[in-house]
Amino acid sequence: MVSHDGVALEGAEKVNAPEDAETSQGVMQQLVNLFDVTSLELLYFPNSPMTVSIRFSTVPESCKPPLSEVDSLSRLIRSSLNDIEGPSHWWLNRSAISKYLSGKDEVFLVVAGAFLEDSTFMLEKVKSLQQRYPSLNVMGFQLCGTLSSDVVRSRLAKIIMSEYITFPVLVSNKSLSEISDRVGYILFKGMEGPLLLHEKDVEFEILETAIKDLIVQPKEKAGLLQSLRGTWVKPLDAFKEPYLCSPLQNLLLYFPGCIEVDEVNERLFLSDVNHHRIIVFDGNGNILDSIGTSPGFEDGEFEFAKIMRPAALFYHDSEDCLYFVDSENHALRRADMESRTVETFYPKPNGYKTKNGLLSWITDKLWSTKAVSSNSDEVDSNLVFYPWHLLKSLENDLFILNRSFETLWIMDLSSGVIKEVVKGSTKILEICGSLILEKSSVLKEIPSNSLPQNIANNFSIEGNPHASLVSSVATFQDNVVICDSDGQVVLKYNKKSKSMSTFDFSNFGVLGLPYWLISPMESAYAAGFGVSGVHVDHIQQFTLLPGRIDIKINVEIPEDTELVEPLNEGCIWRQTRGTATETLVAKNKAESTEKIGVAQQWYDELDDLASLTEKELNSQEDKPLDANLQDGKISIDCAVNTSPGTSEVIINAALYLRIQNETNDSTKQRLTRLVRISNPSGKDNSQTEVCAQILSTSNKAPEEFVFLRPLHVRLKINSRDHPKAENSKDIILTDSFVEVNVSLK
């Protein structure tokens, strides 16, 4: 049987299998000429060796542009590569100017016209293809009549942020009229190669087959990185983050998406989605704990667990466990609040213990660079792809839904097994519509003029105007708590006073140092003195005698800002390399005059800890670092022991600040200043303006935003030889002190 785009062609006859390759090629060429198709695939079925199925795809005539339009698109892309912004175009999400699109053997997938409309379906397909084929170059193309429109730019930026789009987007006002609105994907190999067009609703398997035909899969070489990867750990080199909204990364919250409540213990759980963590806090905004440290897929203690864009949460009070959706990892995770550990609930954790397990299959399909088998029968329809919402049914089932409410996975909570997969929003609402309505209806208690515009005007589903916010709203005591993912805040509406406010968070030391501020040791060694591409606030060199060196760093914070709370030790990270070794800073005790070796230092520290009572130890841990703001400066202390040779001391810190309203600047100007201060390495003015425009949608004044100003100091120390005593045998011990002044103004 011959089928055309998955539909049997009228009058198609059974085709007998040719006996040789030459005849086979002739049959295929005849079909190409007969049906005017772009590609054919010849499949032999083992159970019927004399029968051949011809599978091919084509593009409707309405989607076929003339060659002149194809050339125009190709020229438009190539001509805009050198400039982020020009008279007829601008790029979004470009981290640097690159000519990578000019490669002759590179394969490119262009997502056309999907950004100013509901594009969840298309973007899910594209992100899955990105994960499966790392060598695929993806970009977006959006026609826009008004290039200078701040509204359009901020809307595109919000889509990039909310959908976690990591590929660049080209916006142009040059109309390519012959490319129909029906076209959603443009695929080509090399800039000079032909374009293959696919409709927006093309099946994923057809698109993937076309990509596999163009991509030549390289033979994977087993290296150190490959051998270190577990069978269930997402490769470190697979992570990318949206560039356009990167200044927002230094806000306290970066796309707060979902909220859950534990009324008994008076705790709230917040998915800080694009920071890849879950924040636990009380009704006063005091941060109690943090789950997850960086993007990845690893179980373990809260401080070491890795997740990728956590979304909806469900707290199981009898288990004292928090179930949450790990959206980009296509998984459901469970956090034990008593033991403070995270485990993977679905797919089952034992899958990674066997080579052919389900979790191993996901890793191979989505994250490895190995070639993916073309056998579409391998695809498990029960697999949870890009889940977002999570609801608990009365029958002890979990309802897991994607953001567009087009797919529902019904999971048995006791076994973690997917019982049923439901497609289509109509059927889904028949099953769990009452639960969605019950959770989202609390927003009806709030006057629409008290809600941010993006929440008040949210799209409706089957008459429920707030259904898409079902995971972003909860009741806590006398309040309705709402996640404002555009304004990067958590709102609190008091039912009694009928007033809206925002949570003022505190106790930031619990969050530790953000993952994006720390340069891995191997990067420091590889880059030498200074890390390429990393903003450094201060570099200074010293020549000192070997021994103990006490370092005091005085940091002058930016003008018109104030420190929100004293700097906590958990917000500081120190690293030494070379001949230096970090040691504890001893306060109010006599310093040892003996030479401290690495081993001796370790034993001395153990003795010091053993001499402390548990109460004293806890009081020291809870005590903020002696880094209060004095005369506009923050003081950070550290100490190292050095031997003859060269060494480097690296200090990173997270300074949580607010801007002050001591000028007559407009709200927009103050927001722009806030974004610039929080992102000192940013050089793209349009990027700063877009992020300021996003923040302007919040009901919060610029002075109320808490943002992180990263501090990065590198000190290079040249240590000479030890001075010798008169007998030429003994070594003279040396203690040194250096003071470093750093200005962030």
Overview of this protein structure:
By secondary structure, the chain is of the alpha+beta class. It has 4 domains: 2-57, no CATH class; 62-214, Glutaredoxin, CATH 3.40.30.10; 245-372 and 381-509, Lipocalin (Beta Barrel), CATH 2.40.128.630; 513-743, no CATH class. It is 21% helix and 32% strand. It contains 14 helices and 38 strands. A 7-stranded mixed sheet has the order 6-7-10-9-8-11-12, with helices on one face. Strands 32, 33, 34, 35, 36, 37 and 38 form a 7-stranded mixed sheet that branches. The chain is globular, with a radius of gyration of 29 Å. It starts with a strand and ends with a strand. The N terminus is likely disordered.
